[in-house]
Amino acid sequence: MSSLTIRKQLPPRARPAARPAAVTRREAWIRRLPLLPALIYVIVVTQIPFLVTLYYSFQSWNLLQPGSRHFAGVANYATVFTDPTFRTAIVNTVELTGVSVVISMVLGVALAMLLDRKFFGRGVVRTLLITPFLVMPVATALLWKTTMLDPIYGLVNFILSPFGVHHVAWVSQFPMGSIIAVLVWEWTPFMMLIELSGLQSQPRDLIEAARVDGAGAWAIFRKLTFPHLRPYIELGILLGSIYVVNTFGEIYMITQGGPGTATTNLPYYLYEKAFQAYDIGTAAADGVVTVAGTLIVAMVALRLISTVFRLEGGRA
Amino acid sequence: MADAGYERTAGQRRWSPAAWTVVAWLVAIAFFLPVAWMVITAFKREPAAYTYPPTLDFTPTLDEFRQALARGVGPYLENSAMATGFSTILVLVLALPAAYALAIRPVRKWRDSLFFFISTKMLPVVAAIVPLYIVARDVHMLDNIWTLVVLYAAMNLPIAVWMLRSFFLEVPREVLEAARVDGAGLRQEMTAVLGPLIRPGLAATALICVIFAWNEFFYAVNLTSTRAATMPVYLVGFITSEGLFWARLSAAATLASAPVIIVGWIAQKQLVRGLSMGAIK
Questions:
Q1: Are A257 and A23 in contact (CB under 8 A)?
Q2: What are phi and psi of A279, to 5 degrees?
Q3: Least CB-packed of A87, A101, A267, A269 within 10 Å?
Q4: Do you find a cis peptide bond into A175, omega within 30 degrees of 0?
């Protein structure tokens, strides 16, 4: 990892990059060859279905009504955009993703800094802390819904009872908060792992020198640790968002999108349209709009993670 | 553990190392509590699972595990193992050459290719599920484990390429050049030089793929029903009875999660390395 810090000090273009001019056409194809199977596979399995989704989105087609399939123009899009549930789903998705990812990241950085010190039983503590990320999300959802958040027998109410909390029905009173809490519990270890390796690549002597010069803990964090961690934080936010936007199991198991539409996010909304109403056309239009929205967010996110790509090292 | 030596690191002036140790342990126990409670509840009988205050005073029993097994967990476990195993193998077979092409003898515009792989992860799964469902239905591949294998491989491939590439980049250039000067052919370069050096990275990548494939739910619940259903789908069956059978539910959840938890614990060094290195470099 030390090479990362060395690279960082170099201007981005100063590193030896591939020399395209020196590579002949034939050679270029030979080099490209090993890349092709993976590239073609990804295109066929992920990109082509999306194009088909685009095609379906202009059709009126319900699987429950055989022979109903016909070209419908933008009718599906009109349906989607006039559907208040869809707008709720967009807002819910943004809220769910944004809040969960930010809280997980803040906790992840804090826990990583905790684990970066030496103390008794550090290995065990790390093992305990990464476990939520390993538990099957559907199992997580089931457990939180029942043994943890149950209004009568739940462990959370029991633990909070000395603080005056009694028999709160978390899932029905705070559906969004409950889902976010579960997601934060799941994703904090993921963020922590990424930040931990960021911290471990931090040059110790620099921090030592700063401390000798009388810098306080906060100053060291702000001036040294945080700038060093920044690409790792951006990366965690990017990867976390990619996964959390697609949250489905937790909602399916804990709230079924409810009460009402309080926790219906885009994946769950589309699931209802496609697999409960069998309305392929509308579901496809939802999918297309979701992708458009995600692309906008991704553009912003990619601007953000530009540092990650700037650190990319090439090799001739 | 053995890390008893207290070494001073950043900002330790006001709090003693002992205080930090206590804080770390408290936080760890808090985070682990839901998992611990799942395992504890799994060893209870049903009445003991419903008490207020929650109790630790009970006679452990394997009854609920037996009940969960009696509900036919076998085929689900087998399906999960197949979908996870085969998809991970497929991912590695496809990702290794791709990562090589992006790292060791980079193709022109390798940056664009890498970027393309990552960008496919930004396409939400919901955008593809409708045609995947229709196509799988039309070619009679619904409720088929190989459908999941194909999709899980596509799901994990971008991350795998990214991670493996970073591990290839770790191989010191001098080692490769020395091998080439010594007249090592491509085959020798792969087997004798790159192979051993890349093995830990390969393990880390495989681990990440296994975690995500084993735990995947969206494709599994929408594209399988009885024959190809995986462990997460098996757990859905407990939703209907949730009000009454917490111990059994906990036993099933423990069974479903245990394989990945144990593998993750054993290979946590790789997990730390895998996630981050793969990411940044």
A1: no
A2: -95, 90
A3: A87
A4: no
The single-letter DSSP state of residue A62 is B
Residue A103 in contact with partner chain B when CB distance is under 8 A:
no
Residues β-bridged to residue A2: none
CATH 1.10.3720.10 occupies which residues in chain A? 57-310
Q: Contact A308/A198 with Cβ under 8 angstroms?
A: no
CA-based nearest residue in chain A for residue B148: A45
Burial (CB count within 10 angstroms: exposed 0-12, middle 13-18, buried 19+), residue B144: middle
- Structure confidence at residue B268 as a pLDDT band (50, 70, 90): confident
pLDDT tens across B172-198, in order?
Answer: 777 777 777 777 777 777 777 777 788
A174 in reach of chain B (CB within 8 A): no
Distance from CA of residue A305 to its chain's centroid? Answer: 14
Residues 138 to 167 of A: which have CB under 8 A from any B CB? Answer: 138-140, 142-148, 152-153, 155, 158
Q: Which two tokens stand for residue B249?
A: 């539910």
- Report chain B's terminal Cα–Cα distance, integer Å: 32
User: Which is the CATH superfamily of the domain at B78-232+260-280?
Assistant: MetI-like (1.10.3720.10)
Contacts with A269 (C-beta within 8 Å, 6 or more apart), sequence order = A85, A86, A89, A257, A286
What does the pLDDT read at residue B277? 55
A4: contact with B, CB 8 A cutoff: yes
* Distance, C-alpha A278 to centroid of its chain: 28
pLDDT band at residue B26, thresholds of 50, 70 and 90? very high
Answer for the pair B88, B210: CB distance below 8 angstroms, yes or no. Answer: yes
pLDDT per residue as tens digits for the range A162-202 = 887 777 888 888 889 999 999 999 999 999 988 888 888 77
> Residues A254, A178: contact at Cβ < 8 Å?
yes
Chain CA centroid to CA A282, Å: 26
Q: Could you give the percent of chain A with pLDDT greater than 90? A: 16
State pLDDT tens for residues A42-92: 888 888 888 888 888 888 888 777 777 778 777 788 888 888 888 888 889
Domain extent listing, chain B: 78-232+260-280
Question: Any idea what the Cα angle at residue A133 is, between residues A127 and A134, rounded to 5°?
Answer: 75
Q: pTM of the prediction?
A: 0.83
Q: Which residues contact B186 (CB under 8 A, 6 or more apart)?
A: none
Among candidates B29, B117, B232 on the partner chain, residue whose Cβ is nearest the Cβ of A249: B232
Cα–Cα distance, A190 to B31 (Å, whole number): 13
The fraction of chain B above a pLDDT of 90, given in percent, is: 19
What's the pLDDT score for residue A302?
Answer: 66
Cβ atoms of A151 and A170 within 8 Å: the answer is yes
Band (pLDDT 50/70/90 cuts) for residue A109 is: very high
A289 — contact with chain B (CB < 8 Å)?
no
Cβ atoms of B84 and B125 within 8 Å: the answer is no
Token pair listed for A295:
């692309």
Instruction: Return the structure tokens found at B85.
Output: 């195993």
Separation of alpha carbons A118 and A14, rounded Å = 38
